[in-house]
Every structure is written in structure tokens, then in C-alpha cells.
Amino acid sequence: EIVAELISDITGGDLFEVDTVKTYPADYYACIDEAKEELRRKDRPEVKVYKDDLEEYDTIYVGYPKIQYGFLSV
Questions:
Q1: Nearest-angstrom CA–CA distance, 22 and 48
Q2: DSSP 3
């Protein structure tokens, strides 16, 4: 969130948070276990709200946490 706000301040761009319908566990290890299982099943989380029109943008920055466990990387 901090990096997104920094990029927005520098570029003058809009911010849009991609939020999932499903709530993930606050506990780090429980969240990792769930992420591993979703990866194994090739699941993709359902998104609450989509941005209607992306045509007005020339550049879109997408930021996300990178989680590593063993040889898998998300």
C-alpha cells in the first residue's frame, strides 16, 4: 500500500485496490498453507470489484506481495 501510494504521488496516477471476495487468514503460516493449496488446485480468487474502463490509461502498474515457499513462487 505504501509503495502504491508513492507511485501514485510520483506519477499523479489513480489508485485502485484489487480486493478478493474471500478473506484470508491473518496468521502468516495459515495464509501460506492456503495459498499453497490454491496454487496446487490452480485456483484464482474471485475479485469483489473490477475497474470498468481501462482504456483511459496508457500505463498500468500492478503491485502485489511476492510469497515464496520452497521452490514455488507466487
A1: 9
A2: H
Name, in order, each residue with C-beta under 8 angstroms of 19's C-beta and a sequence gap of 6 or more: 47, 48, 49
DSSP 4-72: HHHHHHHHT-------BSSPPPSSHHHHHHHHHHHHHHT--PPBS---S--TT-S---------EETTE
Give the pLDDT of residue 67. Answer: 61
| Burial classification of residue 46, based on how many CB atoms lie within 10 Å of its CB (0-12 exposed, 13-18 middle, 19 or more buried) | exposed
Return averaged pLDDT per consecutive 10 residues of the chain, 74 residues in all.
Answer: 91 90 90 90 90 88 71 51
Helix (H, G, I), strand (E, B) or coil at 73: strand
